[in-house]
Write a structure and sequence with these properties.
Strands 1-2 form a two-stranded antiparallel sheet. About 65% of the residues lie in helices and about 5% in strands.
């Protein structure tokens, strides 16, 4: 690139002359040839050859933005996981400098990652406090689980008639891994495995837009469910209900699978709201000098 700049060529000139096809020792008057414009000329390739890969420069020029976007995505994943695990509790200010130092990145990917998490509903930008971990009211949490029950109940009803033996086997394998993680207290993977199980049941419905909405609803509820399971030991109920839903789907009973799923989601929301009412009341009574209670994390 340094030689390109020395030759006074910009990106558009390079694309126009097909510099990506001709090697350095073949290119006439090219600034890639050891910085000299006096090299012997060779015949240019035929127009047919030169136009075989017209899209190549676009991909080459896209490498740098893709690397930056990958760094942003990795930063967003790290911040998201810290929010979901309770490392950054609800209402916590998210200082870009501090997060960048913790993750070993500059402020730019942190800022872009926070904007991405804002779109997911996990982060809110406050005019006076900057970025903070978003907080859902108890009313919003009730609404969230009611929405999930309605949408996911419809999805599984549509999906069951199209499920294959492979779908059922995959759901069973995910449940085995999920239950193992529950027994082992591996809080960090609960949310991902829970979503994998649910999405495996819904995928045969072939409703891409609805799935994207459900995915976002799961992201909203995930951190609260992890907290509830970690502190109230509700994994036994979740395990039995998941197995019953999978069994109904395996038997092809779409109505029963839909009813069990709705009961599962509504029940989980009700238990969660009761837990959060108590938890938030307790936090309000705890003196400021005492540390904030946080969920256990996996070793």
């Amino acid at each position: 690139m340094r030689d390109q700049r020395a030759g006074g060529r910009d990106v558009f000139a390079l694309i126009e002359c097909r510099a990506y096809i001709v090697s350095r020792d073949e290119m006439p008057d090219s600034p890639f040839s050891n910085g000299s414009d006096s090299m012997p000329r060779r015949p240019a390739r035929s127009p047919k050859v030169a136009t075989q890969e017209p899209a190549a420069p676009v991909h080459q020029l896209a490498l740098l933005p893709l690397r930056r976007q990958t760094l942003t995505s990795m930063t967003a994943d790290a911040i998201r996981e810290r929010i979901l695990r309770g490392h950054y509790p609800e209402g916590e200010p998210l200082r870009q400098d501090a997060i960048g130092g913790e993750l070993g990145v500059s402020r730019i990917p942190v800022r872009e990652a926070l904007r991405q998490l804002e779109a997911e509903g996990l982060v809110t930008f406050n005019p006076h406090r900057g970025a903070v971990v978003s907080t859902l009211s108890l009313k919003e949490i009730r609404e969230l689980f009611e929405l999930r029950a309605d949408i996911e109940g419809d999805l599984i009803r549509r999906a069951v008639p199209h499920m294959t033996a492979e779908d059922h086997a995959r759901a069973a394998d995910i449940l085995d891994a999920y239950e193992s993680a529950l027994r082992g207290g591996q809080v960090a993977v609960w949310g991902a495995l829970n979503w994998q199980f649910h999405s495996t049941l819904y995928a045969p419905a072939d409703r891409g837009l609805t799935m994207s909405i459900v995915n976002k609803l799961h992201q909203h509820s995930d951190r609260y469910l992890r907290m509830q399971l970690a502190l109230t030991h509700g994994e036994t109920r979740a395990r039995h209900e998941h197995r019953a839903i999978a069994a109904a789907a395996r038997k092809g009973d779409a109505s029963k699978a839909s009813r069990l799923l709705r009961d599962h989601i509504v029940g989980a929301g009700r238990v969660l709201v009761t837990f959060l009412e108590y938890e938030r009341a307790q936090r309000g009574q705890v003196p400021q000098a005492q540390p904030r209670r946080r969920p256990r994390t996996a070793p």
